[in-house]
Give the backbone structure.
Amino acid sequence: MTGVRVMQPVGGPIVGVPNVPGSKSQTNRALLCAALAEGTSRLSGVLFAEDTEAMLDAVVSLGAEIEVDRENTSLEVKGIGGDLNFEDIAIDCRSSGTTSRFLLPVLVAGKGNVAIDGSDQLRSRPFDEQIKALRALDCILNETGAPGRLPIEVVADGVNGGKVEISGAASSQFISGLLLAAPLYAEGLTIELTDTPVSRPYLDLTVKVMNDFGIAVEQPNESTYVVKQGQYSPSDTEIEPDASAASYFFAAAAITQGKVKVDGLHRESCQGDTQFVDVLEKLGAKVTWGTNSIEVEGNQLDGGTFDLRDLSDTAQTLASVAAFAESEIEIKGIGFIRTKETDRIAAIVSELTKCGVEVTETSDGVIIKPDKWKLKGASIDTYDDHRVAMAMSLLGLRVPHIEIRNPGCVAKTFPDFFSVLEKLRPTAIPLTEALAVAAIDGPAGSGKSTVARALAVELNLPHFDTGAMYRAVAVAALRQQVDASDPAAIAALAKTVDIRISERTIVDGVDATEEIRSADANHLVSVVAANPDVRRILVPRQRQWATELGGGVMEGRDIGTEVFPDAIFKVFLTADLQVRAERRFQETAGQTLDDVLQDLKRRDHVDSTRDDSPLEVAPGSVIFDTSNMSVEAVVAELAEMFRLRVEG
């Protein structure tokens, strides 16, 4: 699989009810149980993806007869009744960990020789713990490649069973495989866990599915599972939507200040990954639990520490959400995901770092220190890992130029992921129903003024530089020698000064177009803009201007957060500090580049830490790094995004 998918920022809140496919974990467990049952089972809501296709082919090779209805996502399975006889068959598990790790303990219960193998990716994943446990039950397994890895030749002659010990620290799939096979063993099986297993909810899911197909699993304590010899019974089973897949859409709502509802999931769902919405709720999202649905509505995202040991498949999803948080997020308890389809912790560190996110790897997770000013586009390596592709695509909802390499790898569990995500893109708003304000915020030197003017021309909308208002007050203060350290005097001046802004900026009847860009004005404007009384005086004027003109392109440092928080299109322009300094140096006479650089550092600090209306990235805004782009290219992209948001 090759190719690149360039994500297009949505420019607004993600809203809708995505069509989430069936649970991979439940599908593969139910499919195997149905294949081993005596009689015909019917499975509905089935996932059809590479991992489940691998299991489907495998159980057919074992003798199960299956009628497939892909259009209605259902299967009718006539089981083999536990009659496992092989004649030198080979099973290709592709890249499916569940298929291979569930089948291996089942195959040893049969009679004959069988080879089990998979893709290079699956061959790289460990099987040591399961092989060790099966050999302790006198099973004959021969690794024909690397020790503890696929491919494996199984010389099957039935299994007596009895008792076995196994660690669950690497993967719960090893334990689930033993549980699923246990009824086929002559004496059943007692499984003793030697430590606390990872992803315990998946063991609970295994037990539930086995119960659905007539097999009882006793749990005398947290470390012991007892399964007696028995026969699987046929079952009619409804597969839930995949909670891991749903996590991406819940995260999209949180990131874009949107609202997403997934039908078919609820508090009593059999999948542990539904707990991901509890994490989002702790971060600040609003979560509503329905009788048969979960809805997430985005809000400001805070920080925190989260142990995802039991829902590790959502770790990368949370890592992408963390890039937009207001404070540090630590994800712990996930050291074992280094041996998934790829080293997922290394992938989190590498790919988020490319996008300007500070990430530190720990022994069992990562610490993410977000700084939305530094977010930027990047070409994302996916390592042929579906979860890397889906999680990292979420950054592209708000950050331009996120390129997902090998996007087709999502076919492993969610072939239609990108099309389902695209369907949630906010629909265009008719101009007759909304005030068409494009709010452009950002630090000094990010290109706000230049881009905003050009964008206004491109969109045939009025342009208004709100920063020029504060600069005009600064110029008036300089002219009248008002003490900048006297907030009351500056506020009084703001109330009386006559400011007219169009092609030229006129202050008290005198042209100040060049004067407002002077070094003295640059130095004073942050003090003026940080004065809460001045802001209270000027913000209503800004709102009145936009309302009278029916909208326009407004630029400043609090347009999307304070002046027009409901603007239909919000952008935060940013750029590397050195780039911003070089831009400003070209515009400013009488200063060295280092002088400009130090002044920008000072202004960034003042603007971002002031008590009243600090410079912040507006919720849901597009975060656009202009460092290596021409004005024309930036304007072209912003115009396209705006037109997608506005109809007419």
In short: The chain has three domains: 4-20+241-422, 24-238, 429-647. The longest helix spans residues 532-549. The chain has 22 helices and 33 strands. The longest strand covers residues 111-117.
